[in-house]
Specification:
Blueprint (H helix, E strand, L loop, with lengths): L2 E8 L2 E7 L6 E10 L4 E7 L10 H14 L4 H15 L2 H20 L7
Pfam families: CS, SGS
Protein name: CYBP protein
InterPro entries: Calcyclin-binding_UBL-bridge (IPR052289), CS_dom (IPR007052), HSP20-like_chaperone (IPR008978), SGS_dom (IPR007699)
């Protein structure tokens, strides 16, 4: 359940890319490729026509682990985990926006404008 892509003599260099642990088996006979001036397109045919949520087994496990971190009994904990992830992966503008919203929320709570238990 894997395949190798080998591109020979592209600007004088050879390139290899390996896709290991595909989620499900593919049909080599039904698969095809298209080579254009700036891209190589590999189209893999599934052995059984069914929806894949991701390409590899590793990607599936990663998504399940990420999903589990958001599935908590406390909804505010799930929201906090999401905000932490957005902050960690976001650019500087995203971080400024989250910080601003956090500060404004804390100011409103300290003034008594909104209840502490949301």
């Amino acid at each position: 359940r894997s395949f190798d892509l080998l591109v020979k003599n592209l600007n004088g260099k050879n390139y290899t890319m390996t896709f290991n642990n595909l989620l499900k088996p593919i049909s080599v006979e039904g698969s095809s490729r298209k080579i254009k001036t700036d891209v190589v397109l590999v189209m893999c045919r599934k052995k059984r026509e069914e929806k894949w949520d991701c390409l590899t087994q590793v990607e599936k496990e990663s998504k399940e682990k990420e999903k589990a971190s958001y599935d908590t009994s406390d909804p505010s904990e799930g929201l906090m985990n999401l905000l932490k992830k957005m902050y960690a992966e976001g650019d500087d503008e995203m971080k400024r926006t989250i910080n601003k919203a956090w500060v404004e929320s804390r100011e409103k709570q300290s003034k008594g404008d909104i209840p502490m238990d949301i």
